[in-house]
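Section 5.1 Outputs to date
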Amino acid sequence: MMFEAPNHAKVGLGSRAMKRWTTLILALVIGCGDPEPNKTKPAAPDVNDPAFTSASLDAWYLLGDVATPGHDEMTFSITAPSGTSYVDAYIADLPPIRMTAQSGGFALDTSIKDLPAGTYDVLFSANGSDTAFAKFTWNRSAPYYVLISTDYDFSEMGDNSITFMNNLHAAHKDLRITHFWAPYTYTDPAVTEERRTIMTSWLQTQHDTFRDEVALHIHPYCNFVTDAGLTCITDQSTVYPAGDTTGYTIKVAAYDRPSVGTLFDHARALFAAHNLPEPVTFRAGGWTANAATLQALNDKGFIADSSALNWARIEEWKGYDLYDWNMAEWLPIDDTTQPYYPSSTDIVENQPGSDLALLEAPVNGVMMDYIDIDQIKTLFSANWDGTPLTAPHVLMSGYHPSAMNLPVYTNRLSQLCDLADAHLASTGLGPVVYITLTDLVPVFPAQ
């Protein structure tokens, strides 16, 4: 199956911390009558010698970028057939390297910094043989960034959501979450100060402990809109033709550029009053951002938006304005749309020299409300086919925490994280890197 973990032995013969070899050892190895490495590559073996094992030789090595350091060193050890005096390693088209003899095998530490993305072999030759006794295939790839996000549609998330996300972090050590947090948590009269304190303290801990991001999510609830000093709009619902007096299902796009800018300012003031970081990334409730919304974000110094939606995946909303509006607004956005720079006149296509200094990061993986595990796998492989990436690629997905916290959705998110974990760059099993939206922005600089 395409995404099974690579099957290579890892035995306790070495580690990445092998930079302890001395000139004396090298002199003993090379200076005892052994010839220099043959410059001609040996032939690959039909099968690897049964004596061959490796430790710390990974199947994937990452090409770094401004957000993620690269894996530019190969540091590993191997075992060789009995009677082997010396081993030469042939890595891709690099010059051959005489490995260093150590107790139980041979070791190597070398730079691969100049190798571009691709699939390569390492051939191991014993005693200058023209036929290698082992071949190991490995990959060098740009990162496959997986962004896990949470849209807080409701002022009360529920303790069950807190427990779930605590468990999610515990089960997935590299996980980082972009929390699109709700300012109406602080304006809804139904939420007690005690609950606000509990939820805010929890969010602060996620930020401080796991380097999660605190971003901004707005559904224009009337309690929040009026608290900001504006008149609440109730007649532009994406769900209820007669309107919505709570404001929850009202389009963010119903508010013009100055008004939505006021909402952004008020949200930031509420965050600051509760000792939360200032949000610099945003997602509109119901993904209902328009050009005026993006212009206001740009006015207020936001650096990224994530409202562009892979709308075809929310077919559950067919027959409602939510589906029709998103289809019309985000028509080109699909399973594989990557981050781009919109402009005030075209928010769905990359615009070199755009007047907006705002990265748009589409929700190409939609939310767990709308996709099952088979569709999750489809989206995951649509954005990474299992081969090395020559440039970074992104999958953005997530879920809606709520007091209901339906297991069907949380299970799906856990399965997506399981899939990502099976290909983590940090374990040498693939190019996957978890990242937050703010940290992603410099990976895609404006053109």
